[in-house]
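To whoever picks this up:

The parser on our side crashed when reading a file containing two proteins. I've narrowed it down to the boundary between the first structure block and the second sequence. Both blocks are reproduced below exactly, byte for byte. First block:
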Amino acid sequence: MTQTFRDICWCGNTELSEFSPDYLACSKCGTLVSKTGLRSEQLRVQDDNHDFYGKEYWLSYQTEHYGFPDIRQRARQDLPERCLHWLRTLMAYKLPPAKVLELGCAHGGFVAMMGWAGFDAMGLELSPWVVEFAQQTFNIPILSGPIEDQQLGSELFDAIVLYDVLEHLPDPVATMSHGASLLKEDGIFIVQMPNYEEGKTYSEMVAQNDHFLHQMKSIEHIHLLSRRGVSQFFKNLGFEFLQFEQELFDYDMFFVASRQPLVRYTDEQISYYLLKSPSGRMVQALLDKSSEFNQLQFQYKNTQIEYQTSETRRAELLKIIEQQDQEIASLQSQVNATVTDLQQTKSQLTEAHSDLQHTQSQLTQAHSDLQHTQSQLNQSNSEVQDTQSQLVNAYSEIQHTQSQLTQVHSDLQHTQSQLTQIHSHLQHTQSQLAQSQEKIQDFQQNQLQQIQNQLNEAEAKLKVINVEIAAMKTSKFWKMRSLWFKFKGFVGLPTDNE
């Protein structure tokens, strides 16, 4: 079988990144795209003994590779489980005698059950051997080969259902677009397929042993879509209304897609149509039993949860009991040690009793001494009280003294501040005085020098005058003057000297 590398997603995006050894991840729609999945031409079954989806795929391949029952076993096992689950959902949106096509109908059990319920149903399969097996097993109408090869009119079906099929399609857009053309305007798709939960990496899946790993069958499962991818896929087809239903297995998603808003039928409306025919009554009985089974299964799951919770609690209690047993053993060991210590203590107690008697005698003497000491203590207490009173007075005086000292310290600081200012002023005054003394000395020296000069000049003039006076005394005039003064004195006249 030739396998070629796939490098484009169904949405047309070619920017695919590595996700796992066998899958790439689409950056736009989140789909996982197989690197080695089958091509469209490889889906056709020309040789039932050798082609991939031929006879051996149904009889041995799924059993050997996945552990599934072969198609004969599934033709029995699927009826009360999968087929009833699918039928209940189909009848919630479409009622008999609606025309329904199942793509990939396998053994044909669901097509048969739709027919029993009153639907105009047919199937389609790729393998001629499977087509023959379905016809022989359930006597149903079934087409052979890809849907694109069928000669069918447009707007023919009320519903097309495909369970575990879409992920196998090499070109899902082309196949589903063709299917959409076969649906009436209010027709619906009902799809079951693996649900890829975006956000998980491949390494996380491996570490958690995720159930979805079993869906990563790179040869068959070519496109693994998430809910986001499915919504985008069907919106592109014109089916904007999607309703996700309860899936049968936790790794699947199960949904209805429509061009128009979806309307559900009630259980009473469904029963009304089923009870119109004997085979429909049989289907209704199966649905009733299926509901009872589902309820029992739900109760069983709840019971399992309660049982697991109980087992967890039992394990916790058992652990507590084991811990308590260990604590009891430890306490027993401590009790044994305590008994031994008690025996030793008993012996010591006897010796202590003897010592006690001796001690009591000493205690009597000590009591007498205590009374004497108590008397002395009372006297000491009186003295202590006097001392405390004196101490209180002294403490009060100390506080007063400290207050005065604080005031003195404050005054001293103020005086020091003033002294500092006076010292500064004194220095300034001394500096001015020194300058004044220097000026006075300079002035005195200048004055003395001037006076000395004047004295010298006066002495010189005096000498001159003295010379002149001496000259005058020897002259006639001076002699006449002297006689004149004598005369004036003689006659009683005043002289110039008076």
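<<boundary where parser fails>>
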Amino acid sequence: MAAVWAGVFPLLAAPEPHRVWGAIAGVGYLCAACAALWSRGRSVSVWVAVGGAVVVPLLVLLVTGGAQSEVGVIERSGVLTLHQATPYLADPRTVVEVTPYLPGTAVFGLPRAVLGDSGWLPQLLGDARLWCTAAFLGCLWGARRATRRAVGGGVPLGALVASPVVALPLCVSGVDLPLTGLLCLALACAARRRPLAAGLALAAACSLKWTAWPDVAVAVSLLAHRAGLRAAVRAAAVAVAGTVVIVLPSALLSPGPLVQQVFAFPMGLSDWETPAASPLPGRLLADLGPAGWYATVALLLAGGSAVAVSLVVRPPHDLVSAADRLALGLCLAFLLAPAGRFGYLALPVLLVMWARMVRGVPRAVPVRSRLVRTSEDPRPVPVGGAR
């Protein structure tokens, strides 16, 4: 299935980086399928898929300079932040000069600002995709630690990274991976009753994109259910305070450009036309005119309100239910937004896959007594017996 998915891209009028990834990854997935048939374990197949769908196409795109425009936007944000303490141009002349991200995203462009682009090694190491990927993998590792799962089990993690929902954005842009990883980390910390860690992860996520702000409600609701109202309020306070600390300098230095580029531009209210124009319901409705735009915004608010009510009526009780609720909210947001891309839906799919992967790979615990603790329930239970 993955090979078919990847093989479609070279046949479509997709951007060049997508076609390059599809041509290479399709072969990689086929080789992984053959390895699964010929080898006794699945580890060989997984790592063949990682090599063919991630490592090889990423190296090809890095060497040839192939990337989505988001990579250049992030790297320019880092350069601007280093020189003027804000990632926003005062008067963008084209859509390419618009920075539709919050100031935290500029962190992944700082290596380019420091290393420059003279010479193949600085050009390679300064690519924002490498740092976005490193942040993503680091967050997944931290989430596995937080949920007390086996951090040494590389096969499930490799299968997740090799899947098209991760491999494609990792190779062509990488911009949404840090956000996804931080959301996973926040949910994992909330499930383990760690309000400070959950709040810090939420603050980092909310400083990257404002679309992460509603996600705070899901993590806080999970934390309230598992650790009480006081812990939930503490996490929310840390998330809000951390976001303000990161965003406030740019908001004070360039309030107008920040509002226009970060909020008005994605909603279709600026002078620049957003390239996020997949034929999703919200986009099609907004194209009908002002009435259609207001209708899609109303539907978007209604969907968000419904998810918020569900958090009160039936709050998530564990990691999987929280990830599912967050994925549902994100799907509604991406489908009903006035501007969006099909690729945005990879984020909720990844959340659902990750939560089940973590739940399904428990860490082996040496039996030193007649009592052990499970990862989802800290209460001791008899070994080999019923609760």
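After patching the parser it read the second block fine. The chain is about 65% helix and 0% strand. The longest helix spans residues 229-253.
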